[in-house]
Amino acid sequence: MTPAEVVVLAFALAMDAVAVSLAEGLRLRRPRFRDAFLIAGMFGLFQGLMPVLGWLLAFGFADAVSSATPWIAFGMLALIGAHMIKESFEDDDDHGATSVVTVRTVTPLAIATSIDAAAVGVTFGVLEVQVAPAVAVIGVITCVLSLGAVYVGARVGERLGRWATLVGGVILVLIGLRILLAHLLG
What we know:
Blueprint (H helix, E strand, L loop, with lengths): L2 H26 L4 H25 L4 H5 L2 H20 L14 H25 L3 H30 L1 H24 L1
Keywords: Cell membrane, Ion transport, Manganese, Membrane, Transmembrane, Transmembrane helix, Transport
Subcellular location: Cell membrane
Protein name: Putative manganese efflux pump MntP
């Protein structure tokens, strides 16, 4: 795999994280830099680590794990999305402005959006890709794109108000469905 192919792969892998970062920005509306960077950093970290996990699994029991991962990603994204949809209907005049961003709240999203990167790691073993530089590129590109997406989502969220949380939740559910349907139909 050439360096250019790794960059293209990194952009492709980052798209789920970017969409979820956009949804998080919609929900937060006025994110502090610390919160935006925590979201982007966790997404970049997990997008970078999951191919390593897949690469390691390629030597063992990848077939057993690969059939369950789309279901796990769907379940996690659907639950978080459903919670956001429910939040959008709650009576709260300052809805979204007090949302808490912690490692604990971001980790499930980071895992769910990076599961497909583990499958890419399996191919790294087959294609004899230099893993360390590849995962660094994947992680950095995901982090940078996700950081921008949080702020874009926040700008849109300020204009949409509580509808932004509804839209963000629907986006998460749809991403989960896309992952699951790609697995079932592919």
